[in-house]
Amino acid sequence: MVSSAPAVRTVLGDIGPEELRVCDAHDHLFLRSRRLPGQELVDAGAARAELEAFRAAGGAGVAQWTPYGMGRRAADLPELSRATGVHVVCATGLHQAAHYDPELLDGLRGRLAEMFISELTEGIGTSGVRAGFVKVAGGFHALDAHARWTMTAAAEAHHATGAPIAVHLELGTGALDVLDLLCGESAVPPDRVILGHLNRFPDPVIHRQAAESGCWLAFDGPSRAHHPTDWQMPDAVRELAESGFGHRLLLGGDTVVAGARSVDGGPGMPYLLRRVRPRLAAELGPEPVERILTDNPGRAFAAVWR
């Protein structure tokens, strides 16, 4: 059954795009990876405290990009959302192969798209929580066989359900290759594709070419000192906005390790609103920044669900 109007699929049910309000368009409440031993996001109390801190800073919605097999703890998300009053959108999908045991990936051969579709429409495991988008990942300046497999499955899931597709760009690279595969070969409408981590590879030519396709451009992880984030991101966002692409921009925090949470002494989710928002407002003016934080996420994560 096709929904009559676009809706954002949250862990508490579908809502209108305008209800998402001020949104961290890329973050993590829970995350576990073999590449980050000892740094996992597994504490439900800390996740709740982080959401409460984000809410106190003016936040109202968070898109959790943690995909299948990486400890997203979907069953815990509804209660966290209810307790804090923050809308949470949960991902299905698959990250790079390096994050998984090979046996787990082998078990998904031949049924990956089916699994994505099931989590989007029926729910994740026994939790009953439906995912609201598909998260996949590219490689460094290229798409390997794993990336092509996962993105092709994501495209199939989009065509079956209408779901948006969010893409981790490795160090911000490979944006045009991703668009060639998803929007070219797989015929996914560009406005259903969200490119993440563009701030990590601040090439204005690539940014503009990607924006011209009609996709969404996410600038996330702004507090990472080892990436060209805080000091170059405002210029990149301003250039895109001034070129007429402000309606295609998204902002996120991308908290991936426990020590980065604000409640554990790091910048965390509130940093997006405490520091990034005023910095960008000084470049663009407050109204464009509020639209990027409020209007754009609702449209990016909304779908006419099938």
Automatic annotation (TrEMBL):
Keywords: Hydrolase, Metal-binding
Binding, Zn(2+) 2: K135, H168, H197
Molecular function terms from GO: hydrolase activity; zinc ion binding
Statement: the UniProt record of this protein carries the keyword Hydrolase: yes
Residue(s) carrying N6-carboxylysine: K135
Residues noted as binding Zn(2+) 1 in the record, renumbered to the chain: H26, H28, K135, D254
Keyword Metal-binding part of the UniProt annotation: yes
Obligatory cofactor(s): a divalent metal cation
Pfam families per UniProt: PTE
Provenance organism: Streptomyces brasiliensis
Cofactor stoichiometry and binding remark: Binds 2 divalent metal cations per subunit.
Family of the protein in this entry: Belongs to the metallo-dependent hydrolases superfamily. Phosphotriesterase family.
Protein name: Phosphotriesterase
InterPro entries: Metal_Hydrolase, Phosphotriesterase
